């Protein structure tokens, strides 16, 4: 079983640190998106990289449509990785839906994690008037799923540009598009349904692990209102607004991403005290 998990999630370990840092991709991506961040952290931490089943070099034979119809199925895989590697007080860095997957894992087994770092998180992508703005109407998300079914390559081109939102750097859009296109279209659509129609707002108040929320500028996928909502609802959280534009700061602005994470970890480890709330 141990070897099965290594193969299933294509686990890779690198770095020289004694404390572990897990890097969790967002929707449609694999562990390779973390390459610049992992490179900058590998002398300080033991870096744990993995792929979701259906992405990257994971074992496609392990894909179970029922299990992965909800984010809890992906969260269980994270817990399997943590148990296999006997991780305790690891730093979990998640991008986009990976943030919510890590949060769900922490609710089941908080002892695995010392901190949650959320890059562009969203607990609910739908607008739920009058109290919640997620950024999308239901018709928009249904249209996105329909486009994935009708013209997956066309969807990948449009969605990559929307997500990246760095028009002056077309190579980043091309890199993200390539990752989308390397994923099985059926599995990608099922993951999209699990991610974009999830509603984890009620889970936020139950989180016990200190959390850093990194909010990007001009992020169409996770607008500033969403970051503010998470910060308000999640106890012991810190919110930092980034200069980075778009939804993938670990790819477009890795230096700023690493700097903010590094500063947060230094600030919160000085005396082991609780995280100070901050809106800056």
Automatic annotation (TrEMBL):
SUPFAM superfamilies in alphabetical order: alpha/beta-Hydrolases
One Pfam short name: Abhydrolase_1
Ranges for domain AB hydrolase-1: 21-254
Superkingdom in the source lineage: Bacteria
Record-linked Gene3D superfamilies: alpha/beta hydrolase (3.40.50.1820)
InterPro entries: AB_hydrolase_1, AB_hydrolase_fold
Family in the record: Belongs to the AB hydrolase superfamily.
Name assigned to this protein: Sigma-B regulation protein RsbQ
Species name: Mesobacillus foraminis
Organism phylogeny: Bacteria, Bacillati, Bacillota, Bacilli, Bacillales
